[in-house]
Amino acid sequence: MDGTGIADTAPVFILLGPPGAGKGTQARMLEDAFGLVQLSTGDLLRAAVAAGTQAGQEAKTVMAAGGLVGDAIVLAILKDRLAEADCAKGVVLDGFPRTIAQAEALDDMLARKGQKINAAIALEVDDVQMVTRISGRFTCAGCGEGYHDTFKPLQVANTCDNCGGTQMTRRADDNAETVMSRLAAYHEQTAPLEQYYQVRGALYRVDAMGDITQINTSIATLVGQVNA
Ligand code: ADP
Ligand code: ADP
Ligand code: ZN
Predict the structure, then answer these.
(1) 133 is an active site residue
(2) Interior CA angle at 178 toward 173 and 184, to 5°?
(3) H or E element, residue 177
(4) Which of 27, 47, 51, 181 could form a disulfide with 94 if both were Cys (CB 3.0 to 4.6 A apart)?
(5) pLDDT, tens digit, for every residue of 62-108?
(6) Which residues of the chain fall short of a pLDDT of 50?
(7) Atom of ligand 1 nearest to the CA of 136
(8) Catalytic residue status for 46
(9) Going edge to edge, which strands form the sheet with 12-16?
């Protein structure tokens, strides 16, 4: 696999954590604060599904069932995105890697240019909180800002705080049945990544049970230190 478009000295951060942990919310905050680009493989896959590409068609059923899309598809989509010019300033990966094979492929991709990840930040929430977060999640269709019915409601009814858009979407896979499969996939295939990064000295754990601002402060402090 070829290298990426990430500049030699630009950072690569990974946000690990179960579905609903707050990876997307925190990644967007880091994007603004540190001038990084958020890359969500979930968003890239949903775009492929909506566009009806070959990869999207293959991913669609797996995503609807709450399983993990095959490594080859995910890696091809991510690799294309990483080659784009805006990634030069550094990236925060949200929802990738999700398997050991993906982590190894990322390490290989970076190693081709003598690079490595700066930190893998694990957001730790319990299963009950994860289900509560997922079941109230909705997103602005205009700008992608994430909201929650209880924890991050719109300030003005039906209007995005960020862009003023009025169309909100809820993900089809944010339902009670699929959540259990996603949680199982997380525990079986993604949780082992904590050990993978720990032995490489790159793992940082953050208690993600608190409120959004509090967690952001912990993560931003960490990113600032690792980035210094
Ligand atoms: P992930 O990307 O890990 O799946 P999201 O960032 O989409 O998670 O967050 C899931 C839901 O929980 C969203 O509705 C979001 O607004 C909400 N949320 C995120 N962080 C917190 C938090 N610390 N406390 C309460 N709700 C949160
Ligand atoms: P969440 O953080 O709530 O689990 P995502 O948007 O990250 O949601 O992912 C949605 C779905 O997309 C996952 O359930 C999975 O089917 C698929 N997906 C996203 N990223 C990956 C990945 N790195 N590897 C395999 N499947 C993925
Ligand atoms: Zn918006």
Answers:
(1) no
(2) 125
(3) helix 176-185
(4) 27
(5) 999 999 999 999 999 999 999 999 999 999 999 999 999 999 999 99
(6) 1
(7) 14
(8) no
(9) 37-40, 91-94, 12-16, 119-124, 203-207
